[in-house]
Fold this sequence. Notes:
CATH class of the largest domain: Alpha Beta
Distance between the termini: 59 Å
CATH superfamily of the largest domain: P-loop containing nucleotide triphosphate hydrolases
Number of domains: 5
Bound molecules: guanosine-5'-diphosphate, magnesium ion
CATH architecture of the largest domain: 3-Layer(aba) Sandwich
Helix content: 25-40%
Largest sheet: 8 strands, antiparallel
Number of strands: 33
Shape: globular
Number of helices: 13
Radius of gyration: 27 Å
Amino acid sequence: MDQSHIRNFSIVAHIDHGKSTLADRILELTDTVEKREMVSQMLDTMDLERERGITIKLNAVQLIYHAKNGEDYLFHLIDTPGHVDFSYEVSRSLAACEGAVLVVDAAQGVQAQTLANVYLALDNDLEILPVLNKVDLPSAQPDVVKEEIENLIGLDCSQAVEISAKSGLNVDKVLEEIVDKLPAPSGDANAPLQALVFDSFYDSYRGIIAFVSVKNGVLKPKDKIRFMATGAEYEVIEVGVRTPKEVIKDQLTTGEVGWISAAIKNIEDVRVGDTITHVNTPAKEPLKGYREMNPMVYCGLYPVDNARYDDLKEALSKLKLNDASLQFEPETSQALGFGFRCGFLGLLHMDVVEERLEREFNLDLIATSPSVIYHVFKTDGTMEAIDNPAALPPAQNIDHIEEPYVSAEIMVPKEYVGAMMDLCQKKRGEYVDLQVLDDIRMLMKYELPLSEIIFDFFDKMKSCTKGYASLDYEISGYRESKLVKMDILLNGQIIDALSTIVYKDFAYHRGNAMTIKLKEIIPKQQFEIPVQAAIGGKVIARTNIKALRKNVLAKCYGGDISRKKKLLEKQKEGKKRMKMVGSVEIPQEAFMAVLSMD
Ligand code: GDP
Ligand code: MG
């Protein structure tokens, strides 16, 4: 197809505003997917995405649109996640596009991630096409929201299409707008090859599959290619696109978005953000890659079965292909043995990675409680960055500790401003500003410690505003705080993987809550187990887990053997996620106990 008839675009929006549903309608309208094959949220291909109803991964499909002017257009549509933890996926998608369809829920209006995504699109010089969704809802106020978009974002909305992605109303008009308003890719098919790698995954038969956006030149099977950053060279075996089924093509030309396979087995050779060129006629320069993402949250991941350490290592490397923002390095814990300290963009990201490792790689894992990076200034004048509470130097060697702060922007309906302010105050927030957005909503600005945000801030915010507030934040810098390490002792022994760094004034309360929680979670054993929280050797809270009296089998005395077997099996299953630490068996939840406290 002629390059002037190609349109590459992403769909961006705040979470739940209807991106995936709009993508579904577009796939239907263009007959890309046959009706009988259609399922909702078609592009959310991971089980995990379907179960949770959220998009985690970007997903690129090629489709052909017969426009009203009688001509055919080749579209590449990239659906993207909306949650802040996955904004890295969004920024990578955008670099493969010329335009973005900005979906705004006409009942909810502009939300924090609407703004964040618009800024990402503008950073990438994309043409933005605003679309008002959910106009079928009785509470929809498209005119009010249009004005909001004009005021807050500065986008002209006079011609914004009002749609219902659910019913399909006016979705055809969006397709026409894409043809009329979004630019075609500008590259040169005769120039040396430059193909941007924007995603990849590991396929056990074909090796690593890389997703590319061809910015200049043409990519064909048998081509000798080089990854410009890593220097790795391969011969292309197959190229193709997704529709969303995989379709093999004889070439990918300038402006096209697709995949290549080249029997790549070495995971280090493929890096998201790298440029592929030809070995014989190389491009002079690589394309502008991606900004490295710095993890915000760290935790230790350990195999329940120590013998599976190497499997975990391989699984992490393979997963990193598909999730470039994941970071990891080996670490050891006295309590848990050999594992990895992993860095994530947020708690949801951490949760998703853990679950993918367990499902896609069949691992049983213990995750330690999450931590941010602390800057520890020592009495000898040096500074150490600490992402693991257990690694904190002894108190007498510490001069002071700094923790990361974020500038948070919270959009909230007026009636919940008071509740939100209370929450921010409780989370050690510092008030910065409060602006009136319109008749209904206010924009609150706070400086907050990241460690408070990553724990339960989202959940607390949702519950105290009935789900009507939205949050966006970015790291603003480090500040000195009164922080101490709190150790947990079980049976008199410090369990390093349970240590946390806490704000001093909260320590007593947290210590108490933590010991009570652990008492609930850790099953009774043959002997009594004291549970203590301590700061610098001084016990601040204590409770006991009483000794187990009854044998589970006693209940079945005289009973039939199959029931006995079942009980034993059940017990064994329950044990799967337990870790024997010294003489005490600790279940996985114990390491996350800190997350479920007030
Ligand atoms: P995403 O997070 O932006 O991908 O949003 P989804 O496409 O997953 O949609 C979120 C929810 O909104 C789903 O329950 C959809 O069924 C619903 N939804 C999407 N579009 C519309 C619409 O036009 N009208 C109504 N009433 N609901 C919609
Ligand atoms: Mg979605």
